[in-house]
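Thread title: Can someone regenerate the structure for this chain?

I was given the following input by a collaborator and told the matching structure tokens would be attached. They weren't. Posting the sequence so someone can regenerate them.
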Amino acid sequence: LVADFGAMVNNPHLSDVQFQTDSGEVLYAHKFVLYARCPLLIQYVNNEGFSAVEDGILTQRVLLGDVSTEAACAFLHYLYTADTGLPPGLSSELSSLAHRFGVSELVHLCEQVPVTTDSGGKPWEEKEAENCESRAENFQELLRSVWADEEEEAETLLKSKDHEEDQENVNEAEME
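Best answer:
Regenerated them for you:
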């Protein structure tokens, strides 16, 4: 039964509700599972859902913001299967979803997941924040170098135009 329900996670077959994450990706779900496993989520679907047409079929869609597609899919997987094997990198987002929709068992499971660390002993979230800062700094440096190159090209172009004008003035003077 668990395997059969697990196969229905994000399966469009007979789905009657879709969740769209901030990235624009759409996940498929089945209201009867949401009704049985997560009353706050089905209430959210009923209150916040809107009609959408996909492939000529009218369906109900709900925007699910502030969560990655992977975490939303893992959340649905838990609702469908009650599988306690949670992806460690998603425990923070899963915990947030579990709090948001009142799934206390999942909140408890997420609290049991050890904080993922890198080889230097830093928490994964801290390392990711450092990587993000580093990427931002690299991007800023790239922009500076591009702008510097453009400024140098503009100066060179202006100098060559000034030189051409000087040559034209000399040629005109010679002709007179």
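DSSP finds seven helices and four strands in the chain.
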